[in-house]
């Protein structure tokens, strides 16, 4: 049996499909949509096998299901599609990280070290004693560019006194959220989307609703009040 000729374009095509599938998996990992995604992949694999083996009846049935399922997927994955488009729209192609790192094909997670965590916890404890409100977003491996651009860019080492001074009620930077990446404060006065979920109890204010909304937009992050 002769093997089909494999062109360079075929290799590129395979790599692009594999990369897209990998990124879609990362996008839905940790969400309820992951089980649906795995089911779709299994159905597509079975469909490809039936096509190769010339199993006409099963192939047609799966083909019809796959064709009609496109519209269903748009409904089921609307949050994930929205997140993907937001990521693309907020990607800075000229940044030093580059587009591939924005897609996380080369993992570039930012870990917040223990010293920074201790400073954040201490600041939150002291602000709690004085009833000072704060909204802090700690970045993990999700893109926050789409909300970071709404605030003031900063580059400050995480420090208890700095955090407290930023959220002091008379500070010009206290209104809005703070974004922390690694051990640095990268943005202040950030405007976060607010959840319109009616199941959230009325006793929770805008900061709580903003935290819920951001977790829906970008799962890999922590929000603290």
From TrEMBL:
Q: Which domain of life is it from?
A: Bacteria
Q: List GO molecular-function terms, semicolon-separated.
A: adenylate cyclase activity; ATP binding; diadenylate cyclase activity
Q: Name one GO biological process term.
A: cAMP biosynthetic process
- The segment(s) forming the DAC domain are 78-225
Q: Which SUPFAM superfamilies match?
A: YojJ-like (SSF143597)
Q: Which UniProt keywords apply?
A: ATP-binding, Membrane, Nucleotide-binding, Nucleotidyltransferase, Transferase, Transmembrane, Transmembrane helix
Q: Which reaction does it catalyse?
A: 2 ATP = 3',3'-c-di-AMP + 2 diphosphate
Q: Name one Pfam family in it.
A: CdaA_N
The record's InterPro entries line, in alphabetical order, gives: C-di-AMP_synthase (IPR014046), CdaA_N (IPR045585), DisA (IPR050338), DNA_integrity_DisA_N_sf (IPR036888), DNA_integrity_scan_DisA_N (IPR003390)
Annotated TM spans:
6-25, 32-49, 61-77
Q: What is this protein called?
A: Diadenylate cyclase spyDAC
Record the organism: Nonlabens ulvanivorans
